[in-house]
Each structure stands twice: as structure tokens, then as C-alpha cells.
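User:
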Amino acid sequence: MESNINSIEKPYAVVFALDSINGLQTARILARRGIPVIGIASDPKHPCCQTKICKKIIYTDTENEDVIKVLEDLSSIFDKKAVLFPCNNLEVQLVSGYRQMLENWYHIVLSDPEIDGMLMNKTSFYTYARKEGFPIPRTFILHNRSDAENTVQEIVFPCILKPSTRSYEWEHNSTYKAYKVFKADEFLALYDRCESWSEELIVQEWIEGPDSNLYTCYCYFGIDSEPLVTFVTRKLRQWPPEMGEGCLGEECRNDIVLQETLRLFKSVHLRGLGYLEMKLDSRTGKYLIVEPNIGRPTSKSALAETGGVELVYTMYCDALGWELPFNREQKYRNSKWIFLRRDFLSAYYYWRRGELTLLGWLRSLRGIKVDAMFAWNDPAPFWYDLLNSFRRYFSPQEHRKSMYRNPFPKISQK
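Assistant: Predicted structure:
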């Protein structure tokens, strides 16, 4: 450990799951505020771990309970409690489960464990949403094949199938968060393939509309569950298309999404970071909830920072009991977030379908931007990610994790 760690005035931020875009973006945001950052990661070869902005990176299995001992040992070098930033769902679950112990050494900003558990488990969340009248698409919970066979008789295709929680087994076997299914026989075959990857599977009717109909409200809630920060964004493209993660997004104004987000999270007395994704159904003109995320920054938290809203830094200050930053109100500066490599793939896909021109793509990139991987003062993660993408493309194992060997799904499936 560095001998001068305790001489730094600002308490450390410990970014838990640095080997993710969420972790890298969080570390960069905090480092720009002059906050010393220590990263914890499991994969030293991950592109995000090539960053130079951390004071130190500790490698261990971040999805195993042994990491709690690593956090305990790390705390002994600080003369002030560090602020802990879990950056993926599995890490949030670990921190929530061991909160009572970890709070001896770290500032932790989470809701009550029961609230966190309910919001992070899709089965319990959709049950709560249906009961309380929040708008969700028609949803079925599958516990066994009999449930799947019954659902086929009722569901309207296309539909999506996804896990109740993002488990290690799901992420090990699939590159997709969810699958879009068009026919009954495909649905049952997919269920047979995926049923062992999650304790429960979720089936929902597809919400019609392009990627640009997806909106997210980012929030930070104080100790009394009052929103201290809100920031609304819209996806422009994602990769893979329709069922992937955002690769180009912009800030926007959408009061319906904002109010529905506040209504949901205040109803459960959320504490800390919360995000709600909603989609405008092109058929009905109504907004439906896709899913919430809580307890952690996301990769696009940096979009708020680019738009002049200090979302992540607000959590740091609030955890320490400091005066909150001044910049907490959305200013609508036309800021954008891009994952350039993935957005190029997404744009190419839509170009092949005749839905996007080169000029249209270039126009979509206008505005103040932040890139998921690239930073002028920290370029290594971008170049490592680009190199790894070529390696993955030629990896048979990565191809097996995909539903289709072709990275561009057949146009006829639309």
C-alpha cells in the first residue's frame, strides 16, 4: 500500500467492480473531483482495469463472499471511513447482505435490505408494481416447463424472456440481457435452453417501438427519500438492437417519466441511487416500466455529469454528511453519452436495413459528448476494449454464448 494514503485530505472512494463500464465511469467522475479512488476488480485483463486514474487496484473475486474480507483488510489503511460504490447488481447484493459489518469501515448508501431485494428481483418487483398499479407490460413468471407451456397459450408474440435476476450462470452462458421470441416453438426451445440459468424466468409482452422510445430517469434520494437529483435521458440506439444495452443516449425532458419514477421510488422510501427505465408503446401511446436499477451508478451516470449535474458526487458528499454540490438541476444542454465501438455496430445494422444513413448517423452524434471508454487523460481502456472486441469476434466460446452466430439478427425476424 502507498505510504501517503492517509495524508490525503478527502476520504477515499472505493469502486467495487472496477472491471465494468459502470466502475470505470464512476472512478473517472470521482477522480475529476480530486477524490482518491481505489478500485476492486476480479479481472486484471479487463479493458476498464487498464485505467490510470485509480491510486490502486486490488484484484479478487468480486462475486464471492471472500471479497468482504478484502474490504475489511483494505479499511485498515484509512484514517477516515471511505465511501463504498458497488457498481453492479451482484456487488450491490453483497454489500446489502453484509451491510451491518461493512458499515464499521465504510459509508454505505442503500435502502433497507428488503426494499433493495424487492427492487432488484424482477419477480418481486413486477408483483409489487402490478399490486400498486404501476404501468408494466403483461407479465408471466415461469417456475417450470408447465408454466412455460401454459404461458404459450396466453402470451401475445413477440415477447421477451429474461431472468428474474442477472445471475452468474446467465451471464456465463449468454451475452444478452433478454431474448425476443417470435413463435411458440421457438419460445419453448429457448425455455429449455435457459431454464437452468436462473431460478425463475420472466416473460413479458413486447412493447412496440424503436430504441428511441426508451427513457430513463436517474435519481438520488436523501435520507428522507426526497429526490436530491433527477436527470432524464433517452436512448437513441443500443447494441444489440432492441435487446441490448444503450450505446448512444441523450439528455431530454420527459415529465411523465420523471413523475412516474418519483412516484415509484418514493412509494418504497428509496435511499440512494435509483434509475427507472420506461418505454413508450407506439401502439397505445402509454409509457410502460421496463425495469428499475438501484444502489449503484450505471455506465450512463456520466451523461448526467456531462450535462452539468453532479449525480455521483452528490452521493459521495451526502454519504459523508458534507454540503451537497450546487449543480443538481438538469440544464438541458444537449449532452450525449456514446459507446463508440458499439454504436458503430448498431448504426451499421440500421444502415443495412435502410433505416439510417451515414449523414443521419453523423447528425445523431452532435452535441456535448462523453465516451464510455475513451478519455484523453486515460486512453488505455478504449484501445484495450477495441483489441478485445477483435479477439472475441473470432472466439468460438463467445459465439456459443450468442443466440445467433451472426452478430446482425436476420431482418426477416422483424
